[in-house]
Amino acid sequence: MEARVKWLENLTFTGTSGTGHGVVMDGNKDTGFGPSPMEMLLLGLGGCSSIDVVHILQKGRENVQDVETEVKAERAETDPKVFTKIHLHFKVKGENLNETKVGRAVELSAEKYCSASIMLSKAAEVTHSWEVIE
C-alpha cells in the first residue's frame, strides 16, 4: 500500500492513494479547503468499520438499507495532541434486522476485522455502540 502527499500552499496538501484516489487536506482550520489529517484518521476509522458492518450483515442475509456511523474523539491537551478516546456509534437501518446480528457485526469489526480500529486502540480507548432503526 502506498500514498503520496504534495504541498499546495500555506498548510494545504493533496493526498493521492496508490489506487489514484485523491483528497485535499488542510492544517489551517480557517481556510476550509479540506479535513485536517487528524480528521482524516477519524474518517478512515469510520469508513473501515462501516464497510465491515455492512459486509458482515449482508453476508448474514440481513436486509440492511443504510448505515451511518458517528465518530467522536477526544485529544490530549498538549503536544502531541493524540487521540485519547474515540467512540463509534452505528445507526443501522433496515427491515426486520436481527439486533443480535447487528451487535455481533459491530463487535467483529472492532475485535477482528477493522485494521484501523485495532491499530488506533493501541494508542486510544476505542469504544463502540449501535442502534437499529426500522
UniProtKB/TrEMBL annotation:
Phylogenetic placement of the source organism: Bacteria, Pseudomonadati, Pseudomonadota, Alphaproteobacteria, Rhodospirillales
Gene3D superfamilies for this protein: 2.20.25.10, 3.30.300.20
Source superkingdom: Bacteria
Annotated protein name in UniProt: Peroxiredoxin
NCBIfam families for the chain: PRK10738.1
